[in-house]
Amino acid sequence: MCGIWGVFGTDLPSDRGERAMRSLYKRGPDLQASYVEPGLTLGHLRLAIIDLSENGSQPMHSACGRYVIVYNGEVYNFEALREEIGDAYPWRSHSDTEVILAAYLRWGEQCLQRFHGMFAFALWDKQTRSIFVGRDRLGVKPLFFHAAKSSFAFASRPRVLFDLLPSLPRELDRQALRYYYESGYIPAPYSVYQSVSKLEPGHYLVVNEQGVTKHQYWDLAQVETDERLERADEGTLLDELDELIDRSVRRRLVSNVPVGAFLSGGIDSSLVTALMVRHAGGPVKTFTIGLGGDRRFDESQHAQAVATHLGTDHRCEHLEPDNLLALMPDYLEQYDEPFFDYSAFPVMAVSRMARREVKVCLSGDGGDEAFGGYHYYRLVRDIAPAFGMPSSLRRGIGAILQRVPKHQLRLLGGALQANGPIGAFAFMRSIVKDAVDIQSPALRGSTRSMAQLFEAYSEALPRSLGMVERSMRIDSAYTLPDDYLQKVDVGSMAFSIEARDPLLDHSIFEWAARLPLKWKLRGGVNKYLLRKLAYRYVPREILDRPKMGFGVPMARWLRTSLREWAEELLHGSADFDSLGLDRTKVHELWDAHLAGRREAHTCLWSVLVMLQFQNGIAVG
Q1: Which residues are known binding-site members for ATP?
Q2: Which residue in 28, 343, 415, 576 is a FRET match for 73, CA 20 to 30 A apart?
Q3: 2 part of the active site
Q4: What is the pLDDT of residues 349-388, one digit of tens each?
Q5: DSSP 8-state symbol, 179
Q6: Hey, what domains does the chain have and what are their CATH numbers?
């Protein structure tokens, strides 16, 4: 895991490269180095995990001297690829970085099809003066870039692009603002800046003096459900899934530094930890944050029960929720694109704790999207039949529900007002829901909604997919990479720790995508098959509990600890119009939240983060 950056098409003054190194330092504190030739500079910051010798350092040159690579991430099957390539390449290291170089020499751009892992890399060809830029299939590792006629720049974080190219325009992208206010994140290829793009998961770029071309090499959207599995034997499927996840965990244990696990006590992290224990050479170190004062946010007792059953060397740091506010400056600095997901606070806290003992931690991310874990999926399943009735009747029912006192029924009414089931899913996933009017009419009139984005993506999915499967594919394409994986990548790298996600192996996602819905949702049970597999390793009575998530008491914080900061932003000199916000509506929502008439903390937090991003008010 590292930080990478580069500029092509112009000579880079050394002081700019130095600024880029400082901005990315926490991603690679072990070694910083660069490669320079006329019209090109590549930079790399190393967090040494595999082949700790100088031979594993970057920028790395191919044995023939023609190619140079800077690379962030891990290709977990590198040893198998190295064996396949064999003596055809004169190996000089034991790193996965060199395997990427050798694989490119052997298979060209098709090498991406052979990698199992998380990665973002740029590979320079001195002979053709071109750059091959690739990103992993599910978007675990980030890659931001700027492309213009005369220059191209890329980096692991967007702020670095402005270190490299100070004259880069900073105008905000209004479409990105719309998506952010509705979802709390900005989906690729958009970024908050018009001049900066994100490379989408499963894509690569070819950059040369003629320009930039983008290609897609993997697309989960096109995987069809295998209806024959409707009648499959459950035990056989469990054995197949067991083997897939077990192989993925084994691959992610390859390391020359200590490896631990983030353990929440839920289905996914417990299963990953159980398989890790099976293969580890000694006691597995597991890490959990315990949040006192509010049991709604404290998973520590569940994690302890799993750790005791599995016999791990368990660590739990007990914090009061307000202790997490000490991470506020780090949050605002490290998440250098507006990002609303405040569960990043406990992610940062557990990463900080784990870094005292390990450099790598396995996590359970990905199980919900692949196997149907979120409660939204049951809601979508239950509400979908309503869209078969006449729209006037459905909307009439929705309008009635929106006038009842109970908040949940009002939200159900809002979902029924959508144009279709995909729109209803977008409404459920939205962080604004019935507060959409905080966006200015001008912004809403000139941009498209997340519902429209989701609907366009749904059109490209196989016609055979039902509504729940469509929702899961949408989450895998947008919410997973641009919210959850961004949260973990930035939050863990803020403390120089590598987070590895066994359930995000593309072979697991492809296998799960072929499963009929009955193996994911069955009655009121989410993640049916994955849950049954977890029961093989951890007793049902330990695992069966309501899903909690990794949360903080933001509603209370905004009324107490963060109130002064928030009001300084809301009533200061911020330019609401340029951000596409209606100042009056935002202030009304804030007053309703303070008075306890609304629990509007998710929406308000996203606005406050955007205001902080705009004017840079210091946090006290």
Answers
A1: 289, 363-364
A2: 343
A3: yes
A4: 999 999 999 999 999 999 999 999 999 999 999 999 999 9
A5: H
A6: 2-218 (3.60.20.10), 222-371+479-543 (3.40.50.620), 553-620 (no CATH)
